Amino acid sequence: MGTIREMIEEMEKETLSPYATLSQNSRGREKDEPQCDIRPLFQRDRDRILHSKAFRRLKNKTQVFLTPQGDHYRTRLSHTLEVSQNARTIAKALRLNEDLVEAIALGHDLGHTPFGHAGEAQLNELCSSGFLHSEQSVRIVEKLEKGGQGLNLTWEVRDGIRNHKTSGHPATPEGQIVRLSDKIAYVNSDIDDAIRAQILTEDDIPMEIRKTLGMTTAVRLDTLIHDVIIESKDSPVIKMSPEIEEAMSDLRAFLFANVYKDSVAKVEEVKAKRMIKELYLYYTDHFEQLPERYRLMELDGETKERILCDYISGMTDQYCITKFNEFFMPKAWVVDGF
Length: 338
Description:
CATH topology of the domain at 37-116 and 133-266: Hypothetical protein af1432
Number of strands: 0
Low-confidence stretches: none
Order of helices and strands: HHHHHHHHHHHHHHHH
């Protein structure tokens, strides 16, 4: 009798779609290691991401609204969980590998900076070799986690993380699911948060988009997920129907114009970018103040620019503010006894 893992792998082979990525067919890890007797490869990758420090930091990183004063706005962590839920729903319906989509979904935004895309844009301007959160997510799981050892994830999970961006081309249908699930999640949740913040009302959304996708956030989410499932059934390609895809693209363009680029919520981003820039310049001149494990990366051939990006992008919003205050804000003069 085989191990529990081997029994699960056999179940995958018997029950999943012929287009599914089977655990036993993985291209494997960069560093060979013994298999778990209970968990297949992709389930084990999911667990490693879930227990990583980078994953825990997502709870204090901006999704859209910077350090919002309210308990119900999305953070980068809640966004990640919504992407995972969308992806698993689609994968289950299409009989694809749920463990693989969940691992990719949970890891896709690990490399995001403090203050969301504003922080990413600022580091991209400062670093001569550029900065992209999808590549940083891969760098975290390959090199930075576990004190520089990385998580040693499978090729398929790393490919899905790297290619979750709009221009990406994931090699597996599970990676394609996450790529679409990410957009479905943020388009709907960001509208919900914008309405909560009184930046938008439901009636501001163009009627043609609402007629196609639905009149509420919940209905639009349902429409988009159903469409992906219906259009992708019995196919190796995960896609939307042309009508629904066009409507979602229009909705995304509406968000960029009215929330992401031109709203009262974006005013604070100027300050956030300035903080990141000043910290980057400060650490450039005071490299010795970085934690030792980051300084030692220079001995492995890493440039100071890349090391600074690693350190600053890993900060939470609040830690970034704390370090800025420590270096640039004057402290009150205190005399003992008074």
